[in-house]
Amino acid sequence: MQRLFRQRRTSQSPGWVFILPSLVLIGLIGLPLIALVWRSAGKDFLTYVLSENAFSALKLSLVTSSISVGLALLTGTPLAYILVHSRFPGRTLVDLLVDVPVVLPPSVAGIALLMAFGRAGIFGTWLNAVGITIPFTTAAVVIAQTFVSAPFLVRSARIGFAAIDPQQLEAARMEGANEWQEFRYIMIPLAGRALLTGVILAWTRALGEFGATILFAGNLEGKTQTMPLAIYIGFEENIKIALVLSVMLLAVSLVFLALLRKLEEPD
Amino acid sequence: MKRVIPLLLLFALFVSACETAVTPAPTAVPTIPAPAATSVPTTAPTSTPAPTTLTVFAAASLTGAFGEIGKAFEAAHPGVTVKFSFAGSQVLRTQIEQGALADVFASADHKNMDPLVTENLVATGADQDFATNLLIVILPPKNPANIQTLQDLAKPGLKLIFEDASVPAGNYTRQILTNMSKDPTYGTDFSTKVLANVVSNETDVKQVVAKVDQGEADAGVVYVTDALAAPDLISISIPANFNVIARYPITALAKAPNPDLAAAFVAYVLSADGQAIMKKWGFSPANP
Asked: Which residue of A has its CA nearest to B196?
């Protein structure tokens, strides 16, 4: 970091036209975060961290987001591989489809999930007939999180796979490698960094999921009340809990961000 | 690389390990001349009767009734637009406490009004009850769980949607369950059994109505007035000896941008005209 700033000083100083607007934005982003940390600080911080409500929300968030990312990894990696390496009718459409949740407002995702897999939803009615109800369960939380977060993994994996030199693959094929071996021993190691970036992006998105969850999974402590929901409810009931949970999520986000930066650094 | 700097700055604020990075920062960002805010003449509020907007924060259960009252009030006060924010009373109370600028607050319970009175956030230091309501059980149009009586709510495996305990209706619902548990016909564990069937605690009554209406839950508890507004839902009434009378207080707020209009709106709600509209939407008068 020292190196960075030194470099900055020797370069030509930008004019006020650049500095003033930049300061506005830095303040806009920085001040609320400082305020959040400032207001949550206090000797009762730990009491709230260890409170049952905060703990069950934290546990649920960690468990559901891990499962969601696992699902995204298991299904998103092969999909990204296909999208990069196969030419089939409708490929562009699938490509677009997978990107939709990235730009879709989460509340729209929630309504859509309810219309499809809700108890009275188009497919939910069939599931219900065989005794499976998804809405208002922990499974619904995972589905909502996977819906919104998996596309980030697919995007990242796609970029990673696309960057692999086709000649390497050709060489492997000449040596007699089959498609699985090619995927396992060449693509995965070479695209590892991109995959990891995808995992982190998906994870942060899953951890932060709110809109689709509250609509599709509802709000029940220990079962569907993830940290963002506990923060929303806490804001109305006990702002201290909301603040402490917010700071915890902020800390997790910063760790993920640091990891991302580390991954983006050239070797 | 340069675009990383603002982020690094932010980082530096939180991560103590990066403390050294904060010190060089001022060299990159020298002292800024104060913006020319002082040179801008302070515009005094003009006396021209510009069209005014009255902001009313009202409990979600008042959506229908207050919508109509707002229209009637606008008709009686040309140039005035009434804007509503309908949400769970606990949400609105928190927003007012956090400095939201509203003129009038109508709550579905006293629990969310009294703190505002003690915090001196209401005008004239008092609020007035303007309506009462009762609670009722609602079922989806097809009644998938075949619920016939209140006892059925304790059947294991049902999916019930209530309001969160912080929401007035959710608080009332839990009081009702406690009342019923004291009756031997329901049994002491009635409340526990019913609450075990809850799959979601929503943030206001309208969310419960919507989700039950969609058939996503087997039953919910909402206000009688909500059930009236959604006629395709099946409802099971709760006997008066168990039911809780929800008292709705209203007040003009201390920091109301339009104090006179705020007072006029409160007066209108309490007037014969206002009360007639409340009655039309199923509310009972506060002082029968």
From this structure: A220
pTM for this structure? 0.77
Domain ranges of chain A: 14-42, 44-264
- Tell me how many residue pairs between chain A and chain B have CB atoms under 8 A apart: 115
Please indicate if any CB of chain A lies within 8 Å of the CB of B85.
Answer: no
Domains and their CATH numbers in chain B: 52-132+247-280 (3.40.190.10), 135-237 (3.40.190.10)
Structure ipTM: 0.74
Q: Could B90 and A20 be called an inter-chain contact, meaning their C-beta atoms sit closer than 8 Å? A: no
> Is the minimum CB–CB distance between A198 and chain B shorter than 8 Å?
no
What CATH number matches the domain at A44-264, 1.10.3720.10, 3.40.50.12780, 3.30.750.80, 3.30.930.10?
1.10.3720.10
- % of residues, chain A, pLDDT over 70: 96
SS (H, E, C) chain B: CCCHHHHHHHHHHHCHHHHHHHCCHHHHCCCCCCCHHHHCCCCCCCCCCCCEEEEEEEEHHHHHHHHHHHHHHHHHCCCEEEEEEEECHHHHHHHHHCCCCCCEEECCCCCCCHHHHHCCCEHHHCCEEEEEECEEEEECCCCCCCCCCHHHHHCCCCCEEEECCCCHHHHHHHHHHHHHHCCCCCCCCHHHHHHHCEEEEECCHHHHHHHHHCCCCCEEEEEHHHHHHCCCCEEEECCCCCCCCEEEEEEEECCCCCHHHHHHHHHHHHCHHHHHHHHHCCCECCCC
